[in-house]
From TrEMBL:
Gene3D superfamilies hit by this protein: Glutaredoxin (3.40.30.10)
Family label: Belongs to the peroxiredoxin family. Prx5 subfamily.
SUPFAM superfamilies in UniProt: Thioredoxin-like (SSF52833)
Top-level class of the enzyme under EC nomenclature: oxidoreductase
Pfam families hit by this protein: Redoxin
Role, per record: Thiol-specific peroxidase that catalyzes the reduction of hydrogen peroxide and organic hydroperoxides to water and alcohols, respectively. Plays a role in cell protection against oxidative stress by detoxifying peroxides.
Catalytic activity: a hydroperoxide + 2 glutathione = an alcohol + glutathione disulfide + H2O
E.C. code: 1.11.1.27
Stated name of the protein: Glutathione-dependent peroxiredoxin
PANTHER family: PEROXIREDOXIN (PTHR10430), PEROXIREDOXIN-5, MITOCHONDRIAL (PTHR10430:SF16)
Domain Thioredoxin per the UniProt entry, residue ranges: 2-168
């Protein structure tokens, strides 16, 4: 499992972009994790799946609620990762109204989750291989804090906990 001081996995994620600009075309765009994280402080959190109950009702809203405070405390970007495709993540971003606050990044084939050692096998529940629920504070591509949830838990990876860690 990824640990403090480790670099983020050097993989590509995907982001659905609704408005063309800054070299991005409308639709899914590749996001090179190493390049995207370089020189930035990122509050990254991962969820088992888009549109799932805890993820939609609690996890994303906790980061939306704390987004301005996180940015005021020095966070450049907030990333949400899920093992879903970019189209699903784009639809979820619209539904949760994350534009300009949280980058909703698709880890479509679980490359990030696998490389980080943070997978969650939900095959028996019909969901396949997913990401574990966790959060991490990343500075210049390196993990500074890591908060991995226990099975079925939502206690340490929320936006308020991340904000306290950023300020601490």
């Amino acid at each position: 499992m990824i640990k403090l001081g480790d670099k983020l996995p050097a993989v590509k994620l995907a982001e659905y972009v609704e408005v063309e600009g800054n070299g991005c075309s409308i639709g899914p765009n590749p996001v090179d994790v190493t390049q995207a994280a370089a020189g930035k402080t990122i509050a990254l959190f991962a969820v088992p799946g888009a549109f799932t109950p805890t993820c939609s009702a609690q996890h994303v809203p906790s980061y939306l609620k704390n987004a301005d405070a996180l940015k005021a405390a020095g966070v450049d970007e907030i990333w949400c990762l899920a093992v879903n495709d970019a189209f699903v993540m784009g639809a979820w971003a619209r539904d949760e109204k994350t534009a300009g606050k949280i980058r909703m990044l698709a880890d479509g084939d679980a490359a990030f989750a696998k490389a980080a050692g943070l997978t969650l096998d939900l095959t028996g529940k019909g969901l396949g291989l997913r990401s574990n629920r966790y959060s991490m504070l990343v500075k210049d591509g390196k993990v500074v804090t890591l908060n991995v949830e226990g099975p079925g838990k939502f206690e340490v990876s929320d936006g308020a906990t991340m904000l306290a860690q950023v300020k601490g």
